[in-house]
TrEMBL record:
Name recorded for this polypeptide: Uncharacterized protein
GO cellular component: cytoplasm
Origin: domain of life: Eukaryota
GO molecular function, one term: aldehyde dehydrogenase (NAD+) activity
Length: 327
């Protein structure tokens, strides 16, 4: 495999997972990071770090970007940054293809969005939503939607549509909507729920679709490997089918894995908790499975919660040791 991949935001939970998956698949992988302290983590994983203190400094990585036939934005939607990253990819594509004349050199740009773009998926019944269902951001948090929540997801949906619309002879584009991600060092949900008091706020029966970080990374690789004509201008939901525990099942299992003895406190959702957290987000990943042959392999977050808690806790303690050594 001689193709090169450029992962923007490779120090992130998804970014590192995606970069590792591409490396496992034999690609040469460059990881754009803004903090030098992550360089060694990338190098340990055979990923070449490119450090740019601010990603607005596009010239500092333009030459490396031009070497890559796959560009993955794992920072996700950022009102200030996303457009300029896309613009630099468009310019890179033009350079690589001599403005579309050599379109076989066109890079593929994969943007990381998320399934919360759909809004409250229970508003269309209990069936998981696929990519043909138009997001209904206005439904987020049905009774107590704040305009800020709705607008954040609407902006992200608009940006997804923009990315797909700019596909051209010199840059092909795909959007990934990952489910909630678990496994390995753990993401923001693990950080939040393992650390918080044992409280269930708002609905206890809401459900989200989950995906293991390794399976998610394999999904990005499957997109990169597929014929461009299949994945160009396409959206893919990437979460395991039927891994949708309720909030209460998840919190109870997490607390048990931690050995917590206190009883769960139930309360109304705090006003400052984004209302999009208080919704169902259940997706159907059949498109990626059928079109790309993507096969999530992990059996479920709750089913193997014990090992996921230990992995998260080990990562936290490694981080603490490293920061105390540098103090
Ligand atoms: N984790 C999930 O369960 C999940 C599920 C679906 C969708 N998503 C979406 O996927 C995206 C990534 O999520 P994640 O969990 O991987 O987040 P994360 O661990 O916080 O990683 C975010 C990455 O983006 C970089 N970054 C953030 N803001 C930046 C900025 N202004 N300039 C340059 N780099 C910046 C971070 O760099 P530093 O390390 O230097 O901060 C980091 O590399 C987000 O948009 C999120 O909404 C996440």
């Amino acid at each position: 495999m001689s193709s090169s991949v450029f992962v923007i935001g490779a120090s992130g939970y998804i970014g590192l997972g995606v970069a590792q998956a591409f490396r496992r698949a034999g690609y040469r992988v460059y990881g754009l990071i803004r903090n030098e302290k992550y360089s060694n983590i990338l190098l340990e994983n055979e990923i070449e770090p490119i450090v740019a203190q601010t990603f607005d400094d596009l010239q500092s990585f333009a030459d490396t970007l031009a070497l890559c036939s796959i560009i993955v934005d794992t920072v996700g939607y950022n009102a200030k940054l996303s457009s300029s990253l896309l613009e630099v990819a468009i310019q890179t594509g033009k350079t690589r293809t001599e403005d579309g004349k050599l379109s076989h050199y066109a890079p593929l740009y994969i943007f990381t969005s998320g399934i919360m773009t759909y809004g409250d998926t229970s508003s269309t019944g209990r069936r998981p939503v696929d990519e043909m269902v138009k997001p209904r951001a206005a439904n987020q948090g049905a009774n107590n939607s704040s305009s800020a929540n709705v607008s954040a997801m609407k902006d992200r949906e608009d940006f997804e549509n923009h990315i797909l619309a700019v596909s051209s002879a010199s840059l092909k584009t795909t959007v990934v909507r990952p489910g909630f991600v678990y496994g390995g060092q753990g993401g923001f949900v693990a950080n939040l729920f393992y650390s918080e008091p044992l409280v269930i706020q708002g609905r206890r029966d809401m459900r989200w679709s989950w995906v293991h970080v390794d399976d998610l990374g394999e999904g990005y690789v499957a997109i990169a490997r597929a014929p461009r004509v299949v994945v160009d201008k396409q959206l893919y939901n990437l979460a395991a089918p039927n891994d949708n525990p309720t909030y209460e099942e998840l919190r109870t299992a997490m607390a048990k894995a931690q050995g917590r003895k206190e009883t769960i406190e139930y309360k109304e959702a705090d006003k400052d908790v984004p209302t999009r957290w208080n919704t169902d987000s259940i997706i159907n990943p059949a498109k990626a499975i059928n079109e790309l042959g993507w096969h999530p392999r992990h059996v479920g977050f709750v089913e193997e919660i014990g090992i996921y808690y230990k992995a998260w806790a080990a990562h936290q303690s490694t981080q603490e040791i490293k920061s105390s050594e540098h103090a």
